[in-house]
Amino acid sequence: MNVTSNSTFETGTVIEKKWVILSFIGKGGMGEVYRAHQLNLDRDVAIKVISQGWLREIGDNAYEAETCLDRFRREVKVMAQVRHPNVLQIYDHGSVSIKKGERDVAVEYLAMEYIPGGTLRSTMSAEGFEPDEERTREWIARYFIPVLEGVRALHEMGIVHRDLKPENVLLDGSAPKLADFGLARSCRIAPVTQSVDVKGTPPYMSPEHFLDLKRTDERADIYSLGKILFEAVAGKMKQDQIPFKKASLAAPATPFFRRLDRIIQEATDEDRSKRLPSVEAFKKAVEEALGDGGREDEPVAEKRRLRSPWILRALVTTLLAALMAGGFYFFHEQPHLSNPSAHSEQPKIPENKTPNNQADSGARPEPGSPPPESVKGRDEDIMRLIPAGSVTLPASFGPNGGKTVRVESFYMDETMVTNHQYVDFLNQVLPRVKVENGVVRGDGSIWMLLGEIQEGYEPIAYEGGEFHVKLAPYASNPVLRVTAEGALAYVRFYGRRLVTEAEWAYVVMTGNGRKDEPSPGASESSGSMTEQMSYGVQGERPPVSSPSSGGLQTPPPVLFYPPNAYGIRGMNADLGEWGVRKPETIPKEKREYVVLGGTGGARARSESDLATVSRYPWEAFKEVGFRCALDPGSPNK
After folding, report:
1. Model pLDDT, residue 211
2. Residue 597 pLDDT grade (very low, low, confident, very high; cuts 50, 70, 90)
3. 313-347 per-residue burial string, b: 16 or more CB within 10 A, e: under 16
4. 416 with 557: CB under 8 angstroms?
5. CATH number corresponding to 120-192+200-313
6. Phi, psi of 350, deg, nearest 5
7. How high is the pLDDT of residue 426?
8. How much is the CA Rg of the chain, to the nearest whole Å?
9. Which fold has domain 1-114+522-553?
């Protein structure tokens, strides 16, 4: 095959008569990642190769090229050794010859699981969870403990990851999976000579890792895990923040956070001999903090020195029994969004029970007359009538996958809610709103996160006691980083509701929304922003540039997308949308919020690609917005 672009493979390239390249996801320092389809097994995979751009940079340095290839081969062998639900799976490894000018070049590739979701970073608040103890506990139980399980599986195989960070943990639905083993070294594989450049990410890098990669062992991963836990509680670190140093919370206010602070300090101790000795010890300490209500105790390392092994084993056995009993109550008696399978009934279209005095004009037709094809709401958005019908939900739709569901007629916003519309809503409810450190809270719940969404793109600001759109061209762009609670507050204010996952799938699958029309201005060979964040690469393709944005790289205006057969725009775009799995009229504690498309799955190339992912109501994502729905005949004034 002849390659003329900067990337190794063109869209449509067939590798060894088995893998068809669908799109370019992104690239990092020396690797490129593609989305591909495996013909013989009819499944999508991720293909990783050594970047040809990187090979051009090193030129004739054969030694460095061979070292790079050895490191790549090691990644293949390391990943092939591990079988664990929290570790990315490898499918195949091979080599293909491509034409570079007049030369034939052998390119090695790695085929692995394709994970269309985001990374662990998307589950973490930039401001940190502290002082919200409930959110911290939920995040640790849902995400951090599975990460510890995955790392423990690596260590049991004699593998040290050496580059643990949130961006190297992919999300398969809500299940975290460790990825990017380019720096790992297994005891079963001959080591590769370390070149002079530093490999790793400084904020998560232990002191011994920085000084000499060859001296690192499992305790280097424990240091990185401690930094990840610290970041989840205290907020995102900058690249130059406390590198190679012990981390600690500034002023933990409760016994629970003081216990976590003790664990973080022991995990990130600069002297690795004083660090928590194993991932198992780390996990037990965290579980004890979750299970005992944050009771303060002596350091884990101190307990390890003072107690004899047989006494400690007896105590641990007793404690685990108590934890199992308590855990049963915690996970089975308390409502949890993280267990979609617990709610197996088919989704129903909810009745609108929102306040009458906020409803849309024109929503109630004359008796006996059909509902109008469109209505206009108080927020000036046009809503299109979606006729009734049935849809068989794709297998990726959690507990409802594979079910055929009846969808009654309803109205759906033609476009996603814009920055201007959300700012107007916030300013109308200012007495209910509190802004602190970029977090917008309404009625005590987190509604949205302010600040930059992309570098140079900060659409909404809070100044002088009011919200405003910072630049006029941003007004018509979709509002992002709004939580499910923030979306729900908006739709209820205007007498509407959120879209259900069945309605969303129905509109996509029957309204020509599943056609793979690239977003305006997007390259067909580029993956979504979410895909670019996955597989340990930083995407090269910036967000779509709006023609009215003065050259700034921003999401496009909502009317920039072509309408589908129902007149709905942007249903197959890169951005995800908030929705509900069950009617939002059910009690709050049982309500399930989902991200529809975008972060919840790949852009809809086919029905099998459509996906939804359960999310917590306080999570906010830079790739997720929302739109409104309304039932015909809803009261209006």
Report:
1. 61
2. confident
3. eeeeeeeeeebeeeeeeeeeeeebbbbbeebeeeb
4. no
5. 1.10.510.10
6. -75, 150
7. 96
8. 25
9. Phosphorylase Kinase; domain 1 (3.30.200)
